[in-house]
Write a structure and sequence with these properties.
It is globular, with a radius of gyration of 23 Å. The chain has an eight-stranded antiparallel beta barrel. The relative contact order is 0.16. The longest helix has 25 residues. By secondary structure, the protein is α+β, with helices and mostly antiparallel strands.
């Protein structure tokens, strides 16, 4: 009887270890850029409402402000699906800004924060959202299109 009980306990321990490893593995993603099982939302921003305010030394200098309020279109760039707005502070003249942005979509808002580079694509952190995106985290890829007249915003959303 003792032997059967010992075998049963050992088997139960093995099952628990297997279940724990399986549960831990489900939280991991082995595919590239799939937001760990989250969703990807892509929109195209049209640069329609952008202003720069020179606040420091004359010309492009740290502390200058860039503000914007633009229309955003679906991934195929065929229909308006929302708007975005935000501001950026120049950190390195001719090179980079630090930005905060909110994108307004039909089912909620997504907020991001991070760098905007003058001459290369950027990755910004998703800091939150509302509605469908109320638990959002992850990152947004910002890719210049049409010589900077448009930008592809690719939100990799977890939550």
């Amino acid at each position: 009887m003792k032997r059967k009980l010992s075998v049963a306990i050992a088997l139960a321990a093995i099952v628990l270890v297997v279940l724990a490893v399986a549960a831990w593995g489900k939280g991991k993603s082995h595919s590239r850029g799939d937001s760990r099982g989250g969703k990807v939302v892509t929109v195209i921003e049209h640069q329609t409402g952008v202003a720069t305010t020179d606040t420091g030394a004359p010309g492009d200098s740290p502390g200058d402000l860039l503000t914007f309020a633009n229309d955003v279109f679906n991934a195929k760039d065929t229909a308006k699906v929302g708007t975005d707005q935000g501001y950026c502070v120049r950190t390195v003249a001719g090179t980079a800004f630090e930005c905060n942005q909110t994108t307004f979509l039909p089912k909620g808002q997504i907020t991001v924060e991070g760098p905007f580079y003058d001459a290369k694509n950027s990755t910004l952190a998703i800091t939150g959202g509302t509605g469908r995106y109320r638990n959002a985290r992850g990152f947004m890829e910002l890719k210049s299109m049409a010589g900077g007249a448009k930008f592809k915003l690719v939100f990799h959303i977890i939550g």
